[in-house]
Automatic annotation (TrEMBL):
<dbReference type="GO" id="GO:0007059">
    <property type="term" value="P:chromosome segregation"/>
</dbReference>
<comment type="function">
    <text>Acts as a component of the essential kinetochore-associated NDC80 complex, which is required for chromosome segregation and spindle checkpoint activity.</text>
</comment>
<comment type="similarity">
    <text>Belongs to the SPC25 family.</text>
</comment>
<feature type="coiled-coil region">
    <location>
        <begin position="87"/>
        <end position="135"/>
    </location>
</feature>
<keyword id="KW-0995">Kinetochore</keyword>
<keyword id="KW-0132">Cell division</keyword>
<keyword id="KW-0131">Cell cycle</keyword>
<dbReference type="GO" id="GO:0005634">
    <property type="term" value="C:nucleus"/>
</dbReference>
<dbReference type="InterPro" id="IPR013255">
    <property type="entry name" value="Spc25_C"/>
</dbReference>
<keyword id="KW-0137">Centromere</keyword>
<comment type="subunit">
    <text>Component of the NDC80 complex.</text>
</comment>
<keyword id="KW-0175">Coiled coil</keyword>
<dbReference type="InterPro" id="IPR045143">
    <property type="entry name" value="Spc25"/>
</dbReference>
<dbReference type="GO" id="GO:0031262">
    <property type="term" value="C:Ndc80 complex"/>
</dbReference>
<keyword id="KW-0498">Mitosis</keyword>
<keyword id="KW-0539">Nucleus</keyword>
<keyword id="KW-0158">Chromosome</keyword>
Length: 245
């Protein structure tokens, strides 16, 4: 707004010199200015308050995020410590496993060597067994041949002597005596003689022979089994003969 030009001479020449200062316009302008200043101040205060609130919220959010990051970082550190411990433990376990594997490999190599040695011994034993079987088969054939020739003579001898000798088990002989009891010619007396140990033993006898312990002691002293057979037969005859009237 441009201010009007004032003619000072004309104003002074007037009876009541007055100058229109236009105070109302000035006051209105001042009020408008003050109102604008007040509005500006209020807007500035509101803006500052909003910024302060936003900054406080942002600061709180950043703080919370920082705390969350710190907590996560601490958890990561703890997990890292656990992982390092796990790695160390796995390293020790792997080392132990490698040592165990090495020991097992050495044992396996030793066992393989032993197996090879045992297989070689087995092959030797198989060869020896095959030779023994061939020899045994040859001996059996020889024994069968001799038995075929001896069997008739043996049967006649056993019938005449009244004594039959049989093999019942390995290293055990069954002695059967016939024609002992005149009252019962078909009755047999028998005993089983164990010849496997250093001392001869009678396993069982039927019927029990009272003089048998003494005869066995004599047999172990003399080692004469033929005399033992004769004495046992004589003892059975003596025991089974009826008393004289």
């Amino acid at each position: 707004m441009r201010l009007p030009q004032i003619d000072l001479a004309a104003t002074l020449a007037a009876p009541n010199p007055q100058i229109d200062l236009r105070l109302a316009v000035y006051e209105e302008s001042t009020r408008s200015f003050l109102k604008a200043v007040s509005n500006y101040k209020n807007r500035a205060i509101a803006s500052i308050s909003e910024r302060r609130t936003a900054q406080a919220a942002e600061k709180k959010r950043v703080l919370e995020k920082t705390q969350a990051v710190e907590a996560e970082t601490n958890q990561c550190k703890l997990r890292e410590i656990d992982l390092v411990a796990d790695l160390e433990r796995e390293k020790e376990e792997r080392k132990d496993a490698e040592l165990s594997v090495g020991a097992f490999k050495r044992q396996l190599a030793t066992l393989r060597e032993k197996c090879q040695s045992i297989e070689a011994e087995i092959e030797q034993y198989r060869a020896i067994t095959a030779n023994l079987r061939r020899e045994r088969a040859a001996e059996k054939d020889t024994l069968r041949t001799h038995a075929a020739r001896v069997s008739p003579e043996l049967a006649v001898t056993e019938r005449l002597l009244g004594c039959i000798v049989e093999g019942t088990e390995p290293e055990r002989l069954l002695l059967r005596f016939a024609h002992i009891d005149p009252a019962a010619p078909d009755r047999e007396c028998s005993l089983v003689l164990d010849i496997g140990g250093q001392a001869y033993k009678v396993v069982t006898s039927s019927p029990p022979l009272l003089a048998l312990p003494l005869l066995v002691n004599t047999l172990n002293e003399t080692r004469d089994i033929y005399a033992f057979v004769r004495e046992v037969r004589a003892a059975y005859q003596t025991q089974l003969q009826p008393p004289a009237l």
